[in-house]
Amino acid sequence: xxxxxCLLAAASLALYGASSFVTPASPPAAxxxxxxxxxxxxxxxxxxxxxxxxxxxWSPLAIGAALGLVVAVxxxxxxxxxxxxxxxxxxxxxxxxxxxxxNNSVVAEKTLRKAAIEQYLTGxxxxxxxxxxxxxxxxxxxxxxxxxxxxxxxxxAAYVLDQSTxx
Length: 167
Prior knowledge:
mainly alpha; metal-binding; 8 helices; electron transport; rod-shaped
């Protein structure tokens, strides 16, 4: 949802910025001349100048700026609810001592593999249940709620969920 809002905001800013670079649809009117000679000169200039189109033309700078902004937003790293790279580093720093490779060095059958999570984790196989386990601890697993921030807990839960089918 937040990615959609970011894209909407970026597109709005790009269109607003691009509209600032639109050239006028018609050239400004020349002041009225008092004498006939000045009118003749004006008519000669108007005949020599090519007729301007009635629609506004886009500036290449505006198009480049708008496309650059769109590429930056689309090509940038998405703001995900969970960051798997950060989750991996949190896991390696806090969990890997007991859960290296998805195993469990304290209670061998309670691994971090999908089947074991479905069987032993209160709440089943989902990120919310893993977050609860990490935050509050259970049995011989200590609570990490006071050691890790909410974002780190979200990230490590997403990492465990992602890796549970790979371990």
